[in-house]
Automatic annotation (TrEMBL):
This is RNA polymerase II subunit A C-terminal domain phosphatase SSU72. Signal peptide: none annotated. PANTHER family: RNA POLYMERASE II SUBUNIT A C-TERMINAL DOMAIN PHOSPHATASE. One of its GO terms (molecular function) is RNA polymerase II CTD heptapeptide repeat phosphatase activity. It comes from the Eukaryota. GO terms for cellular component: nucleus. It is an enzyme of class 3 (hydrolase). It is found in: Nucleus. GO terms for biological process: mRNA 3'-end processing. The keyword Nucleus applies. It catalyses: O-phospho-L-threonyl-[protein] + H2O = L-threonyl-[protein] + phosphate; O-phospho-L-seryl-[protein] + H2O = L-seryl-[protein] + phosphate. Keywords: Hydrolase, mRNA processing, Nucleus, Protein phosphatase.
Length: 198
């Protein structure tokens, strides 16, 4: 008899800072096999004004970003929640990673995005990759506002969705429509999904 293989999950937002990391942290603590990514060209964080964001390259360690913001204005970045968020991120992984550069990280069973623009980028990227194995990957979008409170709510919903999916095991392709309808009804959240291949 075949031993049940754990599913691999990817959490994806724009900068791999807030929503994807909150979900990565919660899913990891729950024992799920999870990674997280961003799809932007750079990592962008709020700055002193709308026109002065803090911009970093993907791969810049969270601890370096934390030290930089603490040096610039510790009161502002503590007040707006960036310093506590970055402290959490350092306990999850080293640095923000870009989805489009992740092919070497292997295959995922499900990719969850937190905004439609990110979903479109991930779907395009998957469809533009060379398909060799024809293993399916489920890509789901659940819109979550990019603030600390909503990221916490989104992470709990992400955990619930991933656990339901893992519970469906290898049958997920047969039950995905019902699973999504039930989830939407239970949580009053609209989901969009796409299937791609590795």
């Amino acid at each position: 008899m075949e031993v049940n293989r754990k599913m691999r999950f990817a959490m994806v937002c724009s900068s791999n800072m807030n929503r994807s990391m909150e979900a990565h942290s919660l899913l990891g603590r729950a024992g799920l096999d999870v990674q997280s990514y961003g799809t932007g060209t750079h990592v962008k964080l709020p700055g002193p004004s709308l026109h002065e964001p803090n911009v970093y390259d993907f791969g810049t360690p969270y601890s370096v970003i934390y030290d930089d913001l603490r040096r610039k204005d510790p009161d502002l970045y503590k007040r707006n929640g960036l310093l506590p968020m970055l402290k959490r991120n350092t306990s999850v992984k080293l640095a923000p990673q870009r989805w489009q550069d992740n092919a070497a990280d292997g295959m995922f069973d499900m990719i969850l995005t937190f905004e439609e623009r990110v979903f479109d980028l991930v779907v395009d990227d998957m469809h533009n990759r060379e398909q060799r194995l024809f293993d399916t990957v489920l890509i789901i979008n659940m819109d979550v506002k990019d603030n600390h409170e909503e990221a916490g709510v989104g992470a709990k919903l992400a955990l619930d969705l991933c656990q339901k999916l893992e519970g469906a095991d290898d049958e997920w392709e047969e039950v995905i429509d019902d699973l999504i309808v039930a989830f939407e009804k239970q949580h009053k959240r609209k989901l969009v999904y796409n299937i791609a291949f590795y």
